[in-house]
Amino acid sequence: MSSEPNPRGVAPAYDEAEKGTLDKVYPVEKKPLSFPSDEKKDLFPNEKKEVAVFNAPQVKKDPYMAQKGKKKPVSKLILIKLWYNTYRKLFTITFSINMIMFGFAVSGHWPYATKFAGAFAVANFNVSILMRNEIFGRCLYLIVNTLFAKWPPLWWRLGCTSVLQHLGGIHSGCAVSGIIWLTYKVVNTYRNHINENNAILVIGLLTNVAVIVTAVSAFPWVRNTHHNVFERHHRFVGWTALFLTWAFTIMGDIYDTVNRQWIPDGRHLVRQQDFWYVMGMTTWIVLPWICTREVPVDIELPSPKVAIVRFRRGMQQGLLGRISRSAVKEYHAFGIISEGPHAKYHYLICGVQGDFTRSLVNDPPRTLWTRELKFAGVSNTSTLYKRGIRICTGTGIGAALSTCIQSPYWCVYLIWIGSDQEKTFGPTISGLIHRHIGPERLLLWDSKVRGGRPDTMKILKEVYHSWQAEVVFITSNYIGNSEMMQGCKEAGIPCFGTLWDFVSTRTLLWL
User: Where is this region: Disordered (predicted)?
Assistant: First the structure.
């Protein structure tokens, strides 16, 4: 690349050496964006040929084109199974256990829980934050992928993937339970206000309010429709709640309600369980931020709809990265594309959907803030399976491509649905696709050229049985994800899709 400064920060065209890994050059062989007829025939042996009727002209139809018309209603049982997923099951288990204990406490049958309600609160917050800690998550994925790759029964491996993907159920279950325990603690403190110090009463109330605001800002509707509101309140009010929790815990531990005086005894303080729970909370919150760095980036703009952000160093498959223009706010997560841990670069495909991604196109930066330690996504568990299918639409290819590139012996089948793939994503992403994924493992469905969207379930079913796949990973928008998940469930195909934790009006009508 030229060493001359670029005033707009836009990366020049990539030369051949930059497209490869390390110093090795891989020539990009231009291949068609969809199956030639002979390859398609080999992959889909059950495809029916059109037969001319009498002397009518033969009209060649694409057997995999989606048919227009009213769709078959999905059974309520399938919708209930999809709604009551592992996330909600883990939430139910976590919350139910806490509420059983809480019931014994408020009924007077467990005085210990009443006396140490604050410890129960911060213990729940400790586990809740741990479940979202990126380092802890990476360790869990590493352990599972190392111990259970390919050899256990399929139901066990599917269960491992499901639990890892839905750890948020424990996160939210413990968070809600912690708020209930904290409220119980504050109420008991106010009941005993005669013997309590006024400062403790005020700090306790402020802590409770801050924790509730932090939780409400993370409700699915707020998080998905007002991302910046969610991030500002969940992060900054959450940090405020942490400081208040420290104050409430320390003040409560060193104040003697019998003698109504402060006893600042450090040895007594460190013997209290709630002190160490809050210490754990603080550790899990601080650790990921230690890995935050401002790093140089190159941005390729193949089209007005997409920015391809290039970072130095390679990555393993199935990871996601958060990027921001600021050190502490407005972080957005994208799937990472890389040829492997020893590659020179990794890439993020940022589709223009909001102010942040639009700014990457209109005003490309030279540096971005990111966490050097990336967090794992569901694709990271692809090593558990012998064969699988990866299907994605639009910019979802960013979350799927690394798995397909780095797993040549795992029969990944990449199905991508969109229009003008080469023009939209440019030569860099197209080169990665055609260089590493053979036509027998690839279907790029151009909806503009084909004249419409495909019948994804027809393709999925045939490819699933043809490849003898064990699992399907789906990355799509809400509607596409729902339709494919419903179709796979009805067909008995194990599948994992994008997590959309809000329910559409249409789904509610079905229920």
Answer: 1-25
Give 215-223 contacts, CB < 8 A, sequence gap 24+: 215/175, 215/176, 215/179, 218/172, 218/175, 220/501, 220/502, 221/502
Model pLDDT for residues 221-255, shown as the tens digit of each residue: 887 777 777 888 888 999 999 999 999 999 999 98
Q: Enumerate helices (H) and strands (E) in the chain, giving the number of each.
A: 22, 15
d(CA 438, CA 416): 14
Fold of 378-510: Rossmann fold (3.40.50)
The tokens for 361 are: 């196109």
In eight-state DSSP terms, residue 377 is -
Note the pLDDT of residue 410: 63
> Contact 331/232 with Cβ under 8 angstroms?
no
Q: Say whether 501 sits in a helix, a strand or coil.
A: coil
Average pLDDT over residues 366-374: 93
What token pair was written down for 303? 């089209």
> pLDDT by residue (tens digit) across 453-503?
888 888 899 889 888 899 999 998 888 898 999 999 999 999 999 886 544
The domain covering 294-376 belongs, at the CATH homologous superfamily level, to Translation factors (2.40.30.10)
The ranges assigned to domains in the chain are 85-132+167-290, 294-376, 378-510
Percent of the chain with pLDDT over 70: 82
- Among candidate residues 297, 237, 265, 413, the one with its CA nearest the CA of residue 10: 297
- Give per-residue pLDDT as tens, 300-358: 999 888 999 999 999 999 999 999 999 888 888 999 999 999 999 999 999 888 788 89
Residues 374, 350: Cα–Cα separation, whole Å? 17
> Taking Cα atoms as reference points, which of 198, 270, 278, 277 lies closest to residue 246?
278
Residue 411's pLDDT band, with cuts at 50, 70 and 90, is low
CB 238 within 8 A of CB 230: no
For 511, the token pair is: 């229920």
**pTM, two decimal places:** 0.83
Mean pLDDT of 97-121: 95
Residue 394 sits at the vertex; the CA angle it makes with 389 and 397, to the nearest 5 degrees, is 45
Distances (CA, A) of 181 to 121, 381, 488: 5, 35, 41
Q: DSSP characters for 104-155?
A: HHHTTS-HHHHHTHHHHHHHHHHHHHHHT-HHHHHHHHHHHHHHSSSSS-HH
- On whether the CB atoms of residues 308 and 426 are closer than 8 A, the answer is yes
Instruction: Please state the rounded mean pLDDT for residues 410-420.
Output: 68
Please state, in angstroms and rounded to a whole number, the distance separating the CA atoms of residues 173 and 128.
Answer: 8
What letter represents residue 76's amino acid? K
CA dihedral 429, 431, 436, 441 (to 10 degrees): 80
Q: What angle do CA 456, 458, 463 make, to 5 degrees?
A: 95
